């Protein structure tokens, strides 16, 4: 009878909830890059799925009609063979896109039927980005060329000759020699005019719009077509770029340049009076106003991006909402040109704002809004959160979700619940953080903790979804997660962001310590005796710093691509403006004491906590030697440690199988030292 009752109990027991696995995370579909048709009725977007066996992402074009009766999103047949960067033709009857289906990356066009797509360009070089001119008769595209080459064939001939040369040495006479994850090869991203014939196919030889310009547009490594704009009358191109010269690695002086669409004259500098960063030109629908973003302190990449409005006819320029202490990100005009939609971080969230009449009004309150676009009466935006990856929404009251990618996968998962909390940090100022419960949380139990430290350092671990550092992966594995927006984080005003410069090791550490104590006091389910701290980039620096300065609470540490030796970092990194600004606007030889004030390498004698070090070979922002040096210190001191490296990854781990290995290795390390069964 006892056996029968036990069997019945097992049969009636609910199935164990399934939680997010590392494999789930890396194989979820990813929505991005939405664009509204000119009439505002349809939206195309990029959907990246994962070919796990091939260890890569696969891009396709999807379309959704928010006003249609069904409203269902569907994949365009032209996506067969790969398609990305969808852009509407001016009339909205066709869609241009990029594809490498015929070899190199070229521009193609499709309609909304299942008709075969048409190849628009047959260039000898890959197309990086493009914009279709409003008149429909021209395309402006970016390609990597030698700046002194008048033709694309010239660049191709030089590349072919270099490839045929058996000598592999490369001689440099200025920096950059390498940038992000690539060695400099002498080419620059430059804009070219492509004329279209009456059938919409490229005709004639492309015309260089930046010939002889020593700089990149789009900028490297993360620039895109937001770095340039075509005027509504199709006569002018405005682009953002930095004149490189010999100062490129320590300069943030990007200017806006204007050039005639036909390229008959060299570009003219429009913002030479601002020695800081000018970016993201965006013409109003009537072409009378140019909006753009501008920093005001040269040499500082995390300065506030103010929004400037320039009268195209007179050149008169003024700031919109100058008292709004937030840094603008993505921008889009309303159809009537009266409102500028902007995304910006605020208090752990990236919100969508409407700027009109000199005032900013938040249109969303939670989550992380990224891509936005507007046409007709439709505004579309992508929004993700700690509870799920990006979906598309149209602006309404409230916002209406119009895509449902990953619903089948996510609906079967139990995720960790989360909430923000606030405490008193450095200088007795309020500091914000989040705590996430383990998936399947049970009241009365205590749980080990993953204490996550964000990078930047001018960044944020807020209400957003990540495919690399995602608190839900720790919640799924049975951990609570705590993450703090310490002094230096973005979204709390520029003074809060500025406060970390020159203070990497004291003010943020004070916040992390106070936040940890506040979380333990408020959330009794946190088991502070079974906690590990993890961080990447600046967060990795902080892990190395905590290893010597605050190691008592931690059973283990995880460091990804962190700064171990701050002084050596000043010589090794490629974007020198960063280290120089953060260390008192000085080089390591001018003020070595600034670099050593908070240098983890000087405190290795106090290390004692087991540490997993992860560092990839193509990380040139914080080079591989930083990780190897830290692992050497750990091994020489006899501290339990492991070293994971990826020869084919940069500052991030992006390939699906590498990403899954990263996640499983980290979780195994945490499980080992927290004794999680």
Structurally, how many domains make up the residues? 2
Tell me the span between the first and last alpha carbons: 32 Å
Counting copies of identical and different chains, the oligomeric state is single chain
| Count of runs of 4 or more consecutive helical residues | 13
CATH superfamily of the largest domain: Tricorn protease N-terminal domain
Going by CATH, the architecture of the largest domain would be: 6 Propeller
Based on secondary structure, the structural category is: alpha+beta
Helix content: 10-25%
Tell me the strand percentage band. Answer: 25-35%
CATH topology of the largest domain: Neuraminidase
CATH class categorisation of the largest domain: Mainly Beta
Radius of gyration: 26 Å
- Average pLDDT rating: 95
Give start-end ranges of low-pLDDT stretches.
Answer: 1-15
Q: Please tell me what the overall shape is.
A: globular
* Largest sheet geometry: 8 strands, mixed
Quick one: how many beta strands?
Answer: 38
- Numbering strands along the chain, what is their spatial order in the largest sheet? 31-32-34-33-35-36-37-38
Overview of this protein structure:
It contains 13 helices and 38 strands. With 677 residues, it is of the alpha+beta class. The chain is globular. It folds into two domains: 22-120 and 226-409, Neuraminidase (6 Propeller); 414-674, Rossmann fold (3-Layer(aba) Sandwich), CATH 3.40.50. An eight-stranded mixed β-sheet has the order 31-32-34-33-35-36-37-38, with helices on both faces. Strands 1-2-3-4 form a four-stranded antiparallel β-sheet, with no helix packed on it.
């Amino acid at each position: 009878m006892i056996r029968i009752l036990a069997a019945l109990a097992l049969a009636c027991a609910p199935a164990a909830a399934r939680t997010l696995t590392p494999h789930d995370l890396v194989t979820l579909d990813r929505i991005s890059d939405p664009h509204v048709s000119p009439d505002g009725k349809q939206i195309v977007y990029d959907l990246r799925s994962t070919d796990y066996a091939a260890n890569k992402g696969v891009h396709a074009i999807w379309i959704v009609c928010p006003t249609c009766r069904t409203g269902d999103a569907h994949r365009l047949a032209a996506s067969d063979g790969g398609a990305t960067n969808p852009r509407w033709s001016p009339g909205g009857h066709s869609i241009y896109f990029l594809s490498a289906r015929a070899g190199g990356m070229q521009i193609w066009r499709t309609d909304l039927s299942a008709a075969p797509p048409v190849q628009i360009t047959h260039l000898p070089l890959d197309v990086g980005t493009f914009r279709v001119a409003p008149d429909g008769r021209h395309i402006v595209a970016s390609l990597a060329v030698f700046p002194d080459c008048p033709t694309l064939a010239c660049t191709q001939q030089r590349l072919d000759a270099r490839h045929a040369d058996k000598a592999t040495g490369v001689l440099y006479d200025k920096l950059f020699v390498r940038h992000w994850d690539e060695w400099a090869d002498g080419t620059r991203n430059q804009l070219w005019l492509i004329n279209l014939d009456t059938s919409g196919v490229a005709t004639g030889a492309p015309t260089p719009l930046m010939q002889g310009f020593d700089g990149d547009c789009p900028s490297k490594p993360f620039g895109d077509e937001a770095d340039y704009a075509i005027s509504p009358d199709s006569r002018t191109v405005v682009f953002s770029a930095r004149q490189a010269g010999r100062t490129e690695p320590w300069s943030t002086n990007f200017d806006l340049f204007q050039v005639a669409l036909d390229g008959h004259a060299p570009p003219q500098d429009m913002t030479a009076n601002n020695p800081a960063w000018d970016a993201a030109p965006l013409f109003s629908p009537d072409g009378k106003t140019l909006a753009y973003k501008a920093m005001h302190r040269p040499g500082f990449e995390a300065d506030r991006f103010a929004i400037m409005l320039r009268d195209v006819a007179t050149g008169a320029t003024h700031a919109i909402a100058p008292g709004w202490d937030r840094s603008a990100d993505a921008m889009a005009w309303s159809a009537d040109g009266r409102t500028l939609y902007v995304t910006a971080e605020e208090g752990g969230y990236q919100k969508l704002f409407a700027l009109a009449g000199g005032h900013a009004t938040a249109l969303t309150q939670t989550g992380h809004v990224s891509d936005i676009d507007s046409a007709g009466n439709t505004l579309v935006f992508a929004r993700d959160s700690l509870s799920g990856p990006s979906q598309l929404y149209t602006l309404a009251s409230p916002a209406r979700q119009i895509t449902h990618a990953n619903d089948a996968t996510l609906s079967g998962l139990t995720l960790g619940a989360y909430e923000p909390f606030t405490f008193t940090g450095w200088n007795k100022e309020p500091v914000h953080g989040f705590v996430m419960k383990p998936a399947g949380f049970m009241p009365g139990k205590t749980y080990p903790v993953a204490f996550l430290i964000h990078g930047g350092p001018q960044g944020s671990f807020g209400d957003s979804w990540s495919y690399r550092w995602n608190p839900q992966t720790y919640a799924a594995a049975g951990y609570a997660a705590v993450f703090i927006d310490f002094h230096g984080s973005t979204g709390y005003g520029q003074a809060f962001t500025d406060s970390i410069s020159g203070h990497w090791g004291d003010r943020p550490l004070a916040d992390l310590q106070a936040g940890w104590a506040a979380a333990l006091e408020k959330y009794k389910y946190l088991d502070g005796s079974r906690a590990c701290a993890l961080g990447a980039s600046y967060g990795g620096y902080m892990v190395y710093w905590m290893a010597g300065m605050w190691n008592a609470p931690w059973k283990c540490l995880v460091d990804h691509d962190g700064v171990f030796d701050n002084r050596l970092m000043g010589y090794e990194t490629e974007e020198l403006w960063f280290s120089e600004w953060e260390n008192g606007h000085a080089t390591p030889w001018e003020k070595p004491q600034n670099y050593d004030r908070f240098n983890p390498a000087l405190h290795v004698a106090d290390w004692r906590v087991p540490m997993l070090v992860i560092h990839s070979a193509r990380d040139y922002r914080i080079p591989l030697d930083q990780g190897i040096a830290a692992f050497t210190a750990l091994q020489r001191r006899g501290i339990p440690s492991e070293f994971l490296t990826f020869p084919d990854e940069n500052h991030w781990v992006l390939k699906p199988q590498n990403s899954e290995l990263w996640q499983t290795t980290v979780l195994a390390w945490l499980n080992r030292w927290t004794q999680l069964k």
